[in-house]
Amino acid sequence: MRKVLILSVLLGFSAILNAQDIDSLFNVFERNKGEVAYQAAVAIDEVIGREPNFTLETEKDEIKLKILRTMILYYFNHNDFEHVVKYSEVGIAHYHEIGDLFNEAGCTMTLANAYQRFGQLDKAIECYNRCCDLMDEIGGDMAAVNKRYVMNNIAEIHLAMGEYDIADEMYRKCVEMLGEVAVNDTESNLDLATYYQNLAEVRIARKNPEAVGFAEQSLDLSQRYQDTPHKIINRLIALSKAYNLVGRTEEASQLMDEALSIAKANGETFLETSIYIQKGEYAKAIKMADENHYDELLQEALEGAYLLERETNPRQALEYYERSVIMKDSIFNENQQQLIRDYQVRYATAEKEHALAMEQEKSKRNRLYIMVLAIIALLLLAIALIWYRLASIRKKRNKELAHLNETKDHLISIVSHDVKTPVGAMCQVLRGITDGYDSIADTDKKAQLMLLRSSSEALKDRMENIIQWVKQELANSTVTRKVFGVKNLVDECIKTQEAAIGVKSLKVINEVPSYFMSYDDVNVVSLVIQNLLGNAVKFSYPNGEITIKAEHKGERIWVSVCDNGMGISEKKLEKIFNYMTSSAEGTEGETGTGIGLFVSKQFIDKIGGKITIESVKDQGTTVSFSITYKMLER
């Protein structure tokens, strides 16, 4: 309701709206539907001064096409070619979307004509060629006629570009496509008048007297078959040029005056501007071209004014010349610069010349200084960047070297503390067995071998942990994640330690839910579980109980290994994850490395998790760590 009310107010003032407000009304039409869109379309027609040819029941797409045609024609008639381009492109896109090739070609031809008026000839030719393709795709007599019109327009551009042979060939091709024309065929006779005029224009450009014959036939056909004022004006201008070519100047002047009178009477400002140029009234032509944005005619008028004034009023001629060059949107070439300097030498005072020369010299020096300073600044910047890069590399290498030294120290410490002891114990046992083998009772031999077995297994565990830790520290191994079931992985880890579990008659319970899935490095998680389970077995009393459970918190799974064994003292718990922490003996005298928890923490950190430990002396220990949770439908 509010939109309708606002639009009603807008319609009330439609009589005072100007052409620019059509844009606002079209935006209202595009953004709405139903009655609001309909009222916006009606308002557009009222501003333009046309009766709407649609009703409220008409489909919005059909209304859009009708008002687009109205708007394009309105802007074209008012020489507002920027809006012609804008709405022609809207129309082309819409017609293309609904598959209306004929009207798409019509809008494309209008767009080409607008570009031609702008002087953007390359874009115009591109649009005209697109029209030809569309006409070939449509087929039929009407398409053939329209293709002929398009070819005529392309030929006009080639004529404007000075490509006379191409233009003449295309105009003759249009005449051939038209074929024999009957006397009572008004439309074809008027088309023939157009082609005769164009053939005359080619000959006028080449100063060929044959232009008169073609121009006279063209004007005769247009007047006999009552052509539009616009075209009759063009025929009069063409014949005037042809008469001037053969010396019939008085008749030429009369024709040009007649053309100017018709142009003024019919609001043909483009042709009126062109006539002023032909008559040499360049000031009027420049003013009118400026007001109506006729860039091509403005360029022509400026060049004509320059040629007219250069002998009698060189300063004014220079202004025309400079503006003409700016209109071409290009840098002055050497000849143009020399021409301007000649005028300055000729009409500027010696004092001004000297001041200008000094200023130019100063400007050159300043540019040179700026260039030198810029080069120096770039060199300094390059040196700074190189120095910063080298410093960064040096810092990184120092950091890597420090890390390697620290790793080396850790490794030496671990080997000296945790490898040397079991190796020494094994050597001592082996020496005792081999030295007194015959005198040792079988039961003692078995006890010694069991001790040797225990030491070797401890050494194996130590070496596996050390190897994994060194691989992480030195090889900088990457994390390889994949989806796996947590419960199944725990079962596999329990199986690897069945022998140790059986020796102590321990009860190991896997309480991890079967549907818990993780997306993480399965090798890292397996190593951590085995380390924690090994510690739980080591520090559990015979017939004890170990429970492995898991809990889902946010995006993580917390896996916990719990035992009811000997526990850890509060003092030792504070530094339990340090690599130098010594390992206590197990409940059955088992020895350890003291590196298991250290390695576990290193790997959990690497995969982005956390590890915690809770323990009470003589009551048991719980170690928990987090891994990535992977949701799985149950």
Structure description:
It is a single chain. With 634 residues, the protein is α+β, with helices and mostly antiparallel strands. It has 25 helices and 7 strands. It has helices at 2-12, 21-31, 34-48, 60-77, 81-98, 101-118, 121-138, 141-160, 164-178, 186-205, 211-224, 229-245, 249-265, 269-279, 282-292, 295-309, 314-327, 334-347, 350-435, 442-475, 486-496, 498-503, 522-538, 570-573, 596-606, and strands spanning 482-485, 507-510, 517-520, 545-553, 556-563, 611-616, 620-630. Strands 1, 2, 3, 4, 5, 6 and 7 form a 7-stranded mixed beta sheet that branches. A hairpin with a 2-residue loop joins strand 4 and strand 5 (556-563). It is elongated. The two termini are 52 Å apart. Residues 1-17 and 330-351 have low confidence and may be disordered.
